[in-house]
Specification:
Elements: E1 18-22, H1 26-38, E2 42-47, H2 51-61, E3 65-67, H3 70-75, E4 81-84, H4 91-100, E5 104-108, H5 115-128, E6 132-135, H6 142-152, E7 159-167, H7 187-203, E8 208-215, E9 221-229, E10 238-244, E11 253-257, E12 260-264, E13 275-278, E14 284-285, H8 297-309, H9 320-336
Amino acid sequence: MNLPVPRTPDPAEAPPLRWGILAPGGIAATFVDALRKHTRQEVVAVGSRSGKRAAAFAARFDIARSYDDYEQLVADPGVDAIYVASPHSHHAEQSLLAISAGKHVLVEKAFTPSTEQAQQVVDAAATAGVTLMEAMWTRFLPHIDIVRQLLEDGALGEVETVIADHGQWFPNDPTHRLHDPALAGGAMWDLGVYPVSFAAFVLGLPGRVTAVGSRTPLGVDRQASVVLDGFQPQQHANAVINTTLAAVTPTTASVSGSEGFVDVPGAFYSPQRVRFVPRHQEPVLSDEPVIQGHEGLAFEAAHFAQLVADDRRESPLLPWAETVGIVSVMEQALAQI
C-alpha cells in the first residue's frame, strides 16, 4: 500500500501578514529565520523590555521598527499579528495586551501555565473577534497530516495505545528558566507539552490523568510519567507519555491499533518520515521532508496567516477548547507530582 500524500499547503502560498515579534529570544530568531526562508510573511517590528536587545534583533533580521516595551509594539498600526515568544509564565498577560490592541495573536507553547489563564485568553479573543492560536508547530507539519489521514481512513483500526516522550538535558542551574519556579519552569510545560498534545491529537482529551514523577530542589518538575485514559468514544484506549529535563530521551511517538501501527522517529515533533506497519504486511515509509528541522515553523505561521485571511478565529487543526484542555491535562499531572 501507499501512504497518504500530505495535504499541507506550501508555506509560500499563504497570504502575507505583517508580524510583530514580542520577546526576541532564541525561538523568535528561529521563527523569523523560517519565515524568511519559506514564506511571504513580513516581519515589520520587534519589541522587548530592553531597547538594546530589540534593536540588535531588528538589525540582525533587517526589521524596520524596534520598541523598548510591548505596549508600543502592540499599538503599532502597521502590525497585523503578534507572535508571543516569551516564557510561558508571561503568555497570558502579553497575549491579553495584544488582543486588547486588536491584534491577531500566535502564542508559543505552552499556551499558559494554568487552565484559568488559558480560558481567559481564549474568551478575550472571542470577545475581540481576533484570530488566536497556540504555536504548537507539530500540528501543522506534513508528516502529522499523514498520521491524521491514516486515523481518518481507519487504516490503524481501533486505536489501542499512544506512546510519546520528550526529554532533554539541561544543566542544574537555578538561573536557567526551566529550573525557575517564577518562570513556570519544569519539564512538563516546556517539554511534556509535545507528547501531551500528540496524545490529544490522536485520541482527544482524556477523562482521567494519572501521573507520577519527581521535583528538583527548587520545586519544579524534574520528570513525569503520565497515563491518560477515559477517552470518548474510545474508552478502551490509553496514552502513555514521559518527560524529563535531566536526560535526553528518544523523543519518539507511536500510535498502535488493531490493524497496525504508525511510528515517528525522534524528534517526532519536528519534520520527519513516518513508518506505517500494517498488521501482517510490510512496513511503508514516507518520503523525506522537504522542509527540515526548525524551519518547519514556517508551516504554523502560514496556517495562521491563512486563518486570518479567511476571517477564521481558531484553527480546525487545534481548536481553542483543545488548547485549553491540554493545559488542563498538564495542570492535573503536575498537581499529582
